[in-house]
Amino acid sequence: MRVLLDTNVIVSAVTTRGLCADVFRAVLAAHELVICTQVLQEVRRILDMKFDVPEQLSAEYLELIGQEAIVAEPGEVPDLPIQDQDDGAIVAAALVAGAQVLVTGDHDLQGLKGMGKVSILSPRAFWEELTGQE
User: Fold this and answer.
1) Can you tell me the distance from the alpha carbon of 27 to that of 49, in angstroms, rounded to the nearest whole number?
2) Which of 34, 57, 58, 117 has its CA at a distance of 20 to 30 angstroms from the CA of residue 50?
3) pLDDT of 82-120, one tens digit each?
4) Residues 6 or more apart from 44 whose CB is under 8 A from it?
């Protein structure tokens, strides 16, 4: 399954142990990770500003992600009923890449439930789907 992980999931996977780290590992191990340039840029900015990760370390980390992922460029950005219209590019990238799932902690995006053939799930809902738990 092709899975696009949003910025907040990747940052949480890198900076903490827990659900997002488990989701990230599961996607890398058994699925196709989809990423877009906007997410990569946001991850770099957050690692630098919030976590003071050295530029070289974050660059190397993002390069590794890019090697393991399908890097999708968003096509036409849909008009979505969300607060942050920049998030539309992430949804567009998921659509262009043929992702089945967009995993995000963003409640605004989660409220969409899906777009086209892309389901939009929280990390918890995605994990429960992967593991058959509820």
Assistant:
1) 26
2) 34
3) 666 577 788 889 988 999 999 999 888 787 787 789 999
4) 58, 59, 62
Structural domains in the chain plus CATH codes = 2-131 (3.40.50.1010)
- Other Cβ atoms within 10 Å of 66 Cβ, number: 14
- DSSP assignment of 43-90, as one string? HHHHHHHTT---HHHHHHHHHHHHHHSEEEPP-SPP--S-S-TTHHHH
Amino acid type, 106: D
DSSP SS3 for 121: strand
SS3 label, residue 117: coil
- pTM, two decimal places: 0.90
